[in-house]
Design a protein that fits this description.
- By secondary structure, the chain is an alpha/beta fold.
- It has a single domain (5-177), classed as Rossmann fold (3-Layer(aba) Sandwich).
- 37% of the residues lie in helices and 21% in strands.
- It has seven helices and nine strands.
- β5 and β6 (76-81) form a beta hairpin.
- α5 (124-133) packs antiparallel against α6 (140-151).
- The radius of gyration is 16 Å and the shape is globular.
- Bound molecules: guanosine-5'-monophosphate.
Length: 185
Amino acid sequence: MPGRLFVVAGPSGVGKGTIIRQLIGRWPFYLSVSATTRAPRPGEVHGVNYVFLSDEQFDQWVGDDRFLEWAEFAGRRYGSPRQPVEEQLAAGNDVILEIEVQGAMQIKQRVDDAVFVFIEPPSMNELEERLSRRGDTGNIEPRLERARAELALADQFDHRIVNEVLADAVAGLLSVVARPEGSRT
Ligand code: 5GP
């Protein structure tokens, strides 16, 4: 039986990565490693956090149809490599894509049975504070602007989870992934 594809989206800084990391050991899944043209943050490792590509390399990957989806975000490009995701699904493993909303919308058009989860901040103020704490100084305003546009698309998702209390958000996501085969309700 093939694995299920879960698309977890929501504004930058909302805590998608933190929530997903808390699932490790509680539910078996493959987390897709995206490619990006942005520079690594301190501590980020090539091939682990992201595959860091030059603009030329990214163009090449797009031309070779190596992405399931890709989108621009804050002046950089991000994409989900197709091959590892397809291999994992074919092997029966569940897969998570942690991506922004435009990419999620592309997956929605291309993959019939993916499950879409939107992670929301408790408020825009809280999101701004989280972005500041993460050290995205100078880069916050475009991310907040994008967040407003992303929140407007939240109703396109099968499930919405507010990340106010981390443990509750993790429990919310666990209850989604634990549902029977591909359930959307
Ligand atoms: P960051 O620069 O903070 O790591 O990521 C910026 C945004 O890009 C986040 O919302 C993140 O989820 C999203 N993102 C990361 N990888 C991908 C990807 O492969 N495709 C798309 N569409 N968005 C991604």
